[in-house]
């Protein structure tokens, strides 16, 4: 079957007849089976007969110097992607990860990659059928032996047979001759132009089909609750730039939320400041294998929050819990608490801080910064996460220095009455 559709890309994968993993630098590799990887990584367990059968596990050198015993680094990186393991461009490290999974009998294709492969296959085959059908319908008729166009011979016989009971061989030849004579050179030239144009663009019926209106049974989405307008004039700052590159992006399902910087709208916090201009609110998440970390600086409050589990999918009903620790600059007081974040979509979130402003929760919404530049690739370590871990571990020690007597707290509150920002309610006591 001839192929017309281009490869379908998504994240680190592309599909064209089979699924390929993109290891970088335009190096694409299909998935090697567990048996093939076993023959490469553990040749001692493969008997001599199996070695003769699986000759495809060996390849030729690019220079043609003969057979080599190993594949290049991008082959092993692609296999890590295919099996949902943490990718690396170090060939030895990649082989060790595959071998560890193989020895532990955990080398298998994750379910989300299987679903992704099915979606890409369905999309690619559908586009391939459309393009083949369009190319076939707009094809140029070929000349027959008699010099006439073969396309003129493709006449409908069903309609003629319904109106004709018996036709002699002479009548058939006369009819076909008349139809051949009825084909003008202008019509054939028009067909040739359509043939050339179909190579560069998709035909109009495809566009109409893709832009079809949704069925009437589907109800339009209900509008969200109105969000209060901002109470202050924001001053931009660069806090959202301080986050680590997502080293685990290839392990996340396609529609799962990804750690990224968010611009936050928080009327509850904005109402507490008398200042007309304060820096904008940002959350810039950095991810570990189990948690998401982010700094926040809202007016006089500055601290760190930790999402206590990875958000696997969009969910408007169930929030991801987080814990926070912060310092209140004006009162030199520290506090901590909890909260929840709801991932309404892959690019929008809403959440609430508990014990942040006296008795009421502090609600906020945030939208991902789509044009945010990627942080620099760090070969070793995660400097932003490492610094946040250090500060988080030091915060309980710092909290012991916070005022513990009621009189001391009241005195500080009286000294800061000119500011409308309240102290943190959840104070750490010794």
UniProtKB/TrEMBL annotation:
Q: Where is the composition biased (Pro residues)?
A: 217-226
Q: Which parts of this chain are annotated as the region Disordered?
A: 134-228, 395-430
Q: Which domain of life is it from?
A: Eukaryota
Compositional bias of type Polar residues: which residue ranges?
153-174, 415-430
Name of this chain's protein: Uncharacterized protein
Q: What lineage, starting at the top, does this entry show?
A: Eukaryota, Fungi, Dikarya, Ascomycota, Pezizomycotina
